[in-house]
Amino acid sequence: MHRICSKTASHEHHVLFRAGVVGFVDLTSQDVEKQIEEFTQNRKFVGARKILDLTDDPRWLEREDVIDGMRVLQRHNLTYDLLVSSQFQIIIQRKSDHHQILCS
Length: 104
Prior knowledge:
alpha/beta; two-stranded antiparallel ribbon; 3 helices; 5 strands
């Protein structure tokens, strides 16, 4: 839920809205396509999220099954959010050189 605050000369307005929902999708699953098809039944579903720091594999992002899962997200025009600490930034930068990844 996002809160937007705008001010006029004498009043402050708060507007609450839900721009979209990201959720967990197991990119390594054999049925990743089915998972995404189910989630996209909800028009608010805009993508998936991974907390990269919770994985034990520092090269998780470079695994072929993960990349295949990202391709499924891309085919459905969905985003993939990564929550990361600095230890993964080099890997992400390396991957962004080869894929359309926006790092911010």
